[in-house]
Amino acid sequence: MAARKKTTTKKKPQYVRAKKSKGAATPTMARRGITVALLLLIIGGILFGLKQGFDWIGRQLKSENPRFEIQHIEVACDGKLTEDYIREITGLREGMNLWEFTFEEIEEKLMKVSRIESVYLERKLSNTMIVRVKERVPVSRIVGRQTMRYPFLVDRFQVVLPHRRSLTDLPLIKGLDMDLSLGKPVQHADVETALKIVALCDRIPYLQTYVQLETIDLQYADYIYLYLRNGARARVPRYSLEPRLYKLASTIKVALDQGRRVKTADVTLDTAKVPVTYY
Q: What structural domains and CATH numbers belong to the chain?
């Protein structure tokens, strides 16, 4: 007799879905939000109080401390700006506190003067303020579109400076088709090239002897004209400046050794022999 297999059917478990009550969670969330806000306010108040406290301590130790009252102001300038002028610009005076101002404030006032290149400031405790000013050194004169009677000056950083009658012997840069602004650098590649020529002729004794610059003409796109104090006119490229200037100096030297004076010379060509004419 065969055994019967007994089968059973499992009943699926039944789940009861409970509905969430929206109203019950709202007060809890609100309380949490209020708690977080209060904590943030408390932390903010503590931080603000600490800042105020540190500021008060700082004032008592520095800016409101009579021990740091300025009794001496040492002003030095390597140019012609006077001590009284620098004091007037900065507003510094004896009786002020050393910590009453920031270095950034003093530097900002001084650097508005176009003739000033750099500033050095130092607090010498407990009662001395040191101010050292470096003036910009003009290396050339320069004319632009709006220049009328008197040319401006320019320093090695291409910053335009006011005209000074005592510096009329500096080389003149001309042929520049743009406006110039006092106290602002000239944003022009040709001016940078011209100042490199000036620097080379001033720094190298050999060039200083034979290439005495009078005018640098930038009006031509393919080359630069140099007018020299001995009456010579030379055409130079905008590249390989030092070797080309050496070639020009050697041409002038050879002519002088031969008892002749160069009228024109062209060192733009990549040839050993320089095209030259004589007076």
A: 66-135 (3.10.20.310), 138-278 (3.40.50.11690)
CB-side neighbour CA atoms (13 Å) of 278: 11
What confidence tens digit (pLDDT) does each residue in 9-65 have?
555 555 555 555 555 567 778 888 888 888 888 888 888 888 877 766 666 556 668
Cα 257 from Cα 251, distance rounded (Å): 10
pLDDT tens figures, 58-96? 665 566 688 889 999 999 999 889 999 999 999 999 999
User: What is the spatial distance between Cα 180 and Cα 200, in angstroms, rounded to a whole number?
Assistant: 24
pTM assigned to the model: 0.72
Could you tell me which of 209, 254, 214, 237 has the C-alpha nearest to residue 262? 254
Omega before 126 within 30 of 0, i.e. cis:
yes
How many Cα atoms are found within 13 Å in the side-chain-facing hemisphere of 67? 7
